[in-house]
Design goal:
325 residues; mainly beta; Jelly Rolls; Immunoglobulin-like; eight-stranded mixed beta sheet; four-stranded antiparallel beta sheet; 4% helix
Length: 325
């Protein structure tokens, strides 16, 4: 895997790239799944505000029940990378969010990442298959809006999927049409100024791409990927949980009521099962190894958004977003 230079700088009359950074290679990271449908607005305050100060988390949209991005270990890369895995034709996005309320990130940055993007859908018509990114700084500690992270297919679908739908974010950089590359390439320098200390409470980088794997006729391993993202060193990194979106059957079960105050009922599930409940930062907050009764007591959880993971007798896992009132 090639090494990428992604430097952070403090802005003086001469820019000096000297602040501490790390390279995210996704070898131990997870993508927290964010459901998006008529009742779920996408990546909003319920997810973003749960990130600890000085920590960063990765999120993948699951548009209308279909998981859209995941971490892969195939496709000519010597390690893990993020790839589009859904067959849907519509634009989808994934994002990195850093809680900068401790003012650990400021000044000018020179960013890079590795990617590949191989599609036959790019032409001069309005059906362009595009891939790009947007970088935002949030000026308010309370997230008023959300990143929907979904849009229609066609020209500028990715642009819409990467947008934020309120006014408390400032778009710092955007590039919506990275060149095609059949093999791993570098994005080139992305010069971003995060301003003086305390300017932005959150930093968000969103990658968006238009068409899914089935529409383009490309398998996951040879279609789209992002890796080796150089980021500011996290001043307070939180442990990564074992929650993963790999090998999950999203139709395994449903829950009701949701939102709930005391109990939720598990529907469409036969036999014994085990469950784990994670908060939106990926921390395990409750688990039971074996259970027959199809109700779960959540009265001991604080109000908020959680991910409920259930494993059935055949060792098939499913996940659902759970809202505790």
């Amino acid at each position: 895997m090639k090494k990428i230079t992604f430097m952070i700088a403090t802005l003086f009359s001469l820019v000096a790239y000297s602040q501490s950074t790390f390279t995210e290679d996704f070898s131990s990271e997870i993508l927290v799944t964010v459901p998006q449908d008529a009742s779920n607005p996408g990546l909003d305050n319920s997810y973003i505000s749960a990130i600890a100060a000085g920590d960063g988390k990765w999120f993948s949209i699951a548009g209308f029940g279909t998981k859209d991005f995941d971490i892969q270990t195939t496709g000519g890369n010597s390690g893990a990378y993020v790839s589009r895995v859904s067959e849907t034709q519509f634009a989808r996005a994934f994002a990195y969010v850093y809680n900068n309320s401790d003012n650990s990130v400021s000044g000018a940055y020179d960013l890079n990442f590795d990617y590949f993007f191989n599609t036959s859908f790019d032409n001069a018509s309005t059906t362009n298959d595009r891939f790009g990114y947007k970088i935002y700084g949030m000026t308010d500690a309370t997230v008023a809006g959300s990143f929907v992270m979904t849009s229609g297919s066609g020209d500028f679908g990715d642009n819409n999927a990467a947008n934020y739908n309120d006014i408390d974010f400032v778009q710092l950089k955007a590039y919506t049409h990275l060149p095609h590359s059949d093999s791993w390439a570098n994005s080139g320098s992305i010069n971003v100024d995060f301003g003086a200390s305390g300017t932005y409470k959150y930093i968000v980088i969103v990658w968006a791409q238009v068409f899914g794997t089935a529409q383009t006729g490309n398998p996951v391993a040879s279609y789209f990927g992002v890796d080796n993202v150089k980021l500011p060193t996290q001043s307070n990194p939180q442990p990564t949980s074992t929650l993963s979106t790999k090998d999950i059957d999203e139709s395994l079960f449903s829950i009701a009521p949701n939102p709930a105050t005391s109990y939720v009922t598990i529907n469409n599930l036969v036999g014994n099962f085990s469950y784990k409940i994670y908060n939106v930062t990926g921390k395990l907050v409750k688990s039971v190894n074996t259970q027959v009764e199809k109700t779960i007591n959540i009265s001991d959880l604080i109000s908020g958004v959680y991910i409920l993971e259930i494993t059935n007798e055949d060792n098939v896992r499913g996940v659902q977003k759970l809202i505790k009132l």
